[in-house]
Specification:
heterodimer, A: six-stranded parallel β-sheet, five-stranded parallel β-sheet, 15 strands, 0% helix, globular, B: 139 residues, mainly beta
Chain lengths: 140, 139
């Protein structure tokens, strides 16, 4: 369970130039639970079978993509192809026209294109997927 | 049950109405009050913001703005508007969920999702086009 991760731009020092540079990082560590968090956006364009897909970024399944996973934890989800798995998204889930999404979905919002196929247990709404929002802001 | 204006929704269940039972209609109904039971129609059902529906619905097109609990089956589409709160099993050819809508339940959506389901008893009978044998005069 993630707790209010510190996501975003951070400074990183260049060894060669010895200068500090602000850059978007692909992973950070949660300052509360010390769990490493991936920030990268993932894009699938072919068949892939995975146990867990875990990122704070946006997962995109392209038209020719066919992903089978046990669990998908993501910051947002765009399905244009096929996806099967238990999905927990902290951002909106977009299902394109003629896409297939099979599995249980928990997300704050859902958009479905014409001709899309959905099957599973859905929890969509204010509480869906965003347990981060329930945590009060930390006073600095 | 009051008859009110509008071609799409000739039937309206008003905000002070409380209906329990089975309802069948042809064209469309706007639900503004409370409904408990079953709805069977080939037409449209519009559940307004203030309405509460606890029913199994078999319709052509369902639009929800209020609170709904029960099994929804739509041969065409289900629309969950921004203020909609839905809990139950949903089966439809198309699904539209506006941002802010709350959906909790099992969802089956797709062009073939509604096909093959037996026609619910109590639903209005549609005219069936039977093949006319050639060479025989039509009486």
């Amino acid at each position: 369970m993630f707790r209010n991760p510190t996501i975003g731009r951070r400074s990183s020092a260049c060894i060669a130039a010895s200068r500090r540079k602000w850059a978007a990082r692909l992973s950070v560590t949660c300052k509360f639970c010390n769990k490493p968090l991936k920030l990268e956006d993932l894009r699938f364009q072919a068949y892939q079978a995975r146990r867990v897909i875990d990122t704070c970024g946006i997962v995109t399944i392209e038209k020719k993509g066919n992903v089978v996973a046990d669990k998908v934890n993501c910051g947002g989800l765009i399905v244009r192809g096929k996806l099967k798995g238990e999905i927990q998204s902290r951002g909106p889930v977009l299902v394109g026209p003629e896409a297939e999404l099979r599995g249980d979905v928990t997300a704050p919002s859902l958009a479905v294109g014409a001709g899309a196929i959905l099957e599973g247990q859905y929890k969509i709404g204010a509480k869906g997927g965003s347990d981060v929002a329930d945590i009060p802001p930390v006073s600095s | 049950m009051a008859e009110s204006g509008g071609n799409d929704f000739p039937t309206t269940l008003g905000p002070d109405a409380n209906f329990k039972g089975e309802l069948t209609y042809e064209k469309g109904m706007r639900l503004q009050g409370k409904f408990e039971g079953n709805i069977n129609t080939a037409g449209r059902l519009h559940v307004t913001k203030e309405a509460k529906l606890m029913a199994d619905v078999d319709a052509g097109w369902i639009s929800v703005e209020g609170d709904v609990r029960g099994k929804l089956t739509a041969s065409d589409r289900v629309e969950l508007k921004q203020s909609a709160r839905y809990e139950g099993d949903l089966t439809a050819s198309k699904l539209v969920v506006d941002e802010g809508a709350v959906l909790n339940g099992h969802v089956t959506v797709g062009p073939d999702a509604v096909k093959g389901k037996p026609h619910t008893p109590g639903a209005p009978h549609r005219p069936v086009n039977l093949p006319i044998p050639q060479g025989q005069p039509i009486k």
